[in-house]
């Protein structure tokens, strides 16, 4: 049975995403690693949010995408100021997983995009909440600990809204 090139690419990207997704998230071991992880995740959220605004069908998906662009841009700008004060740089690129998830979302048809995006946002925000909770609880850097504590309520709000969207658009991520 012949497969079309987009279908093969989609299957390969999904397999790679699942393989990379099997690695558990680790707490940031240094200010540099937290800054890298948090800023890369933020860039991924911004890019996925822009994609949701372009390809989303439902108004609530488009609105959530816009909120992701706005909120994660603000958070990354604050993180950039902190990083600069420590002579560190933020990531300008999303994580590999975020890139793959965005590619997969980009390949989906508009009708299933909303469901895929909502599911992706549940998983992405669960990981972000975990990263920020660990930094808030155990950081040796007072400035980053304060940033994590300040940002956590917004990330938890995003997670709750993503779960609502996943449930509303037939996703399964909200059930976990």
Number of distinct helices = 6
The overall pLDDT, averaged over residues, is: 81
Strand content is under 5%
Distance between termini? 35 Å
Structural class: mainly alpha
Largest sheet: none
Uncertain parts: 1-27
Query: Tally of extended strands?
Result: 0
Spell the H/E element sequence.
Answer: HHHHHH
Q: Could you say which overall geometry the principal axes of the C-alpha atoms support?
A: elongated
- Give the fraction of residues assigned to helices: over 70%
Give Rg in angstroms.
16 Å
Summarize, please.
This protein is an all-alpha fold and 176 residues long. It is 78% helix and 0% strand. It has helices at 5-21, 31-55, 59-85, 96-107, 110-138, 142-168.
Can you characterise this structure?
There is one protein chain. With 176 residues, the protein is an all-alpha fold. 78% of the residues lie in helices and 0% in strands. It has six helices and no strands. It has helices at residues 5-21, 31-55, 59-85, 96-107, 110-138, 142-168. The chain is elongated and about 40 Å long.
